[in-house]
Amino acid sequence: MEKIWILLIAILIFLVTAFLFWKLIGVDAKKEYGTKKWNHWPTRLSYWQGLVLYSAGFTFLIMFLLKWLNVLTF
What is the pLDDT of residues 49-73, one digit of tens each? Predict the structure, then answer.
């Protein structure tokens, strides 16, 4: 049961960081590339790949920090 909670916390952290990244960077990326290039799928694919990788990295760092602070035990 304890591992399920840790997994749920990790998923929640991932979703929150992905949402924040999307809200903060999404508008700037669309302006930088322009509407025509933004509608082309390789541009969006690289944006979403970056979003997933950054969110996974931040999730790992936050989980490691929570473990180091003894908030989570696993």
Answer: 999 999 999 999 999 999 999 998 8
Sign of the C-alpha dihedral, residues 3, 5, 7, 9? Answer: negative
8 Å CB contact between 52 and 18 = yes
| Domain parsing of the chain, residue ranges | 17-68
Residue 69 gets which letter from DSSP? T
- pTM across the whole model: 0.85
